[in-house]
Amino acid sequence: MDKKRKPLTRRLIQVYTALLYNAYIKGFAEGEIYTGVLKNACVPGLNCYSCPGAISACPLGSLQNAISASADRPAFYVIGIILLFGMFLGRVICGFLCPFGLIQELLHKIPVKKLKKNKITQKLTFIKYVILSIFVVVIPLFFGLRKQPLPAFCKYICPAGTLEGALMLMIHPDNAELRALTGGLFYWKLAVLIAMVVTCVFIFRAFCRFICPLGAIYSLFSKIALLGVRVDMNKCNNCGACVKTCQMDIKRVGDRECIQCGECIDVCPEKAITFKAGKLVLRGPDIAHKEAES
């Protein structure tokens, strides 16, 4: 079996997804943000609304804006969309459909000595739930009730917004006025981006593991999501090969820290792991073997 076949397939999906999310080529050419009807919808992964090529909104930014406006109208639409994404896809979105996840994985390929997961990194994964609570829910709600909308995560932290939105717009020659408006907040966000880029070179998907509140939301659906990796406990002998191979801070396949990438399927000696949509097996060791032979 060609062991590179499955990861390559996932990488292609990641690339195609990033291109689809940012298909508004005119925006890159003219340095402008697309504001058409598609921007009323959300893509599943983290992709900044302000990216010149973005054809739809980021669910995390939309959620903060909806919470900020909850004093005037309920945030049913955005919450409903995120619930649908979570119930059907869960953290498959993180593993396959998030452009910023792809960027992190490519950064990690830079050949330097890596920091492997350990007990400390496992504890640090809880930070993203704190960030979700404070910067995505509490602060936007607090200021929203006072008629002062504040999408705190987007404004103060999100490195994807800085990279895809601010920098992409500022480098365009027609946007000199944006460069003239840079101040302390921009340089803070730039410092956060640089720190995250450097960290991701040494630590696999550091932003996803420790910071990303969208991943924190989707992780809550790990046990009920329709699509994802599944372990047949009748076959599993608890050898731990899957957990050892995984670069995320999982304690078992399919838990909240699992991004459902499926790369554990081929390392399981008992062929106990499959990738399923409900009861339908989409990928497993036997299927992969047949594909490689064909």
Largest sheet: 3 strands, antiparallel
Task: Give me the number of helical elements.
Answer: 16
- Taking Cα atoms only, what radius of gyration do you get, to the nearest Å? 20 Å
User: How far apart are the termini?
Assistant: 10 Å
Q: Mean pLDDT, rounded to whole units?
A: 92
Low-confidence stretches: 1-5, 288-294
Strand order of the largest sheet: 1-2-3
| Residue share in β-strands | under 5%
The helix/strand order is: HHHHHHHHHHHHHHEHEEH
Task: Summarize the structure in short.
By secondary structure, the protein is mainly alpha-helical. It is built from 16 helices and 3 strands. The protein has a 3-stranded antiparallel β-sheet with strand order 1-2-3, covered by helices on one side.
Descriptive account of the structure:
The protein is mainly alpha-helical. It has 16 helices and three strands. A three-stranded antiparallel beta sheet has the order 1-2-3, with helices on one face. α10 (159-170) packs across α12 (184-202). It is globular. The N and C termini lie close together (10 Å). The model is unreliable at 1-5 and 288-294 (pLDDT under 50).
Key structural traits:
294 residues, 16 helices, disordered N terminus, single chain, mainly alpha
Fold topology:
Elements: H1 5-21, H2 25-30, H3 59-68, H4 76-88, H5 92-96, H6 99-108, H7 119-124, H8 127-144, H9 152-156, H10 159-170, H11 176-180, H12 184-202, H13 206-211, H14 213-219, E1 227-231, H15 241-245, E2 273-277, E3 280-283, H16 285-293
Antiparallel strand pairs: 1-2, 2-3
Helix pairs in contact: 3-4, 3-8, 6-12, 8-14, 10-12
